[in-house]
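Model the whole thing, not chain by chain.
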Amino acid sequence: MSDVKVLTARWGKKDSHTLASYKADGGYGALEKALSMPQPGIVEEVKISNLRGRGGAGFATGLKWTFLPKDIRPRYLCVNADESEPGTFKDRYIIENDPHMLLEGIAITCYALDIHLAYIYIRGEFPKQAAALEQALAEAREAGIIGKKLMGKDFDLEVHVHRGAGAYICGEESALMESLEGKKGYPRLKPPFPAVVGLWGKPTIINNVETLANVPWIVKHGGAAFAALGTGKSGGTRLFGVSGNVKRPGIYEKPVHYNLKKLIMEDCGGTASGRPVKAVIPGGSSSPVLRGDEIDVSLEFDAIKAAGTMSGSGGVIVMDDSVCMVRVLSRVTKFYAEESCGQCTPCREGTPWMESLCEKIEHGHGVPGDADKLLDMANHIGGFTICALGDAASMPVQSFVKKFKDDFERHIAEHRCPFGEGAWGVSQDSREAVIGGMRA
Amino acid sequence: MPPHDPTKPGDWKDLPKDQVARFDAALAPVLQRYPPDKKEAAMIPALRIGQEIFGHAGTAVQQLCAERLGTSPARAEEVATFYVMFHTHPTGKHLLEICTNVSCCLAGADRMFEQLKRRLGVENGGTTKDGRITLREVECLGSCGTAPAVLVDEKVMEERVSPQKLETILGGLQ
């Protein structure tokens, strides 16, 4: 398996975030190359690359780009930097370490798709990262890269940073656009999809930070080379963020089809406590949980479906056998209850209901049948809402109850949490993290 | 800011003139980022500026934002009450927010949150008697690999927070 670093190659270098450093390493060379290519040729390279969305859904990026109607202008690009899925912490490091790589990806994408206005929607809780983007943008404008003439070419491009104000739902693409329009983040009914009716009713492409950061490499080395880093219908590498009970949590850039067990046991050194792995959330808190004996799987988008879960946002959370699964699920359901936007009744009413039932079981007040009742609730939320938050809230409940039924039954039978005060497990010391190969 | 009078829902004209002038000066460059006929897109930045200048985003500030962006006060209110980073009522001088989501709790955040509540004598969302610190439990801050995380004054992210480090952070909040 290849060891090529597409995204993290420059991390840790002195002043890697500056334009001077980026250019010294050949930065903006891909944009220069792209400007000499026919625009459809760039889209074609991205299609060939098998680049798939890194925000969670894994949709083919090049294919998404072709959904833009041919003759409607203006078109917009929204860059999704709302990174809020529990367990996910990768885009912020791209922005901190190599913001110009993202800006170059944005510039190439806008040129390829004839887009002249782009917004980077970044979550409000990332003030340092928003400032880093503003600074990089200022440098790029000053150097004549972004602005009235895109690197001297007769192509006008404006890119702006738009900060959110604390709402997980705004990472959902249609809620992101509502928020950007100055409203509360209520997801829209789809279809129409954003590529047809998006920001201010105009065709809009929404891509995740990591997705766009891959674009310069694809243009520079060709789509086929990127595809070759991965497998089947998934090209390239991904940033996997590993947290929880591991010796070395952090960001690991690996081929898209890297093995989950290898990532946890070899790269991250196994559990910090030395105890067996009990459970792994493989792709952000909404992805169905895996038992410790199920983690020998490829993280590739399609392959991991066979294991009944998804690699989602690449956020891997590891728990050893000292952790109470009811405690964890209770916290996960609380998150979705907090973040439900309130638009659809099943989600607005169902998520707090699931949370309170989890809490009841956790505190030893559950009665026989409660675990099945939780499943029943989840089954009546997922698939019955406008956006995927309903599914996101249901999948953890369904998987935790099915895979760790014993934990639930023990709480009910013993009228207490069998893990007691230590429900969050034994390894609670903060540990040194590894970010893109370096110690953070 | 004058106390809110329910019979006069947030009259922005009662806000101090010099602060309104500062608000307008800060808003002007932000408006350049959006198409001229889409000014209301600046609602989040406008409320953020208002909150920074006037201390919180109450009804008067909401109405000022609506007036400047050419939209209804109801729109401003819906935004101010939807996003957790807007405070429609005054908070303490400092805002201390601790993430208690899964990765942070696996690294001890639940214990630290309890420690903070005892130490400050407040419950979740409460403000210390001297008005110095408001403590709040928040959702994932995107610092899972460097958990636990604490956000100070919505500006500084403290990572790999230990009970000892927490004491240092508290000491800095004067």
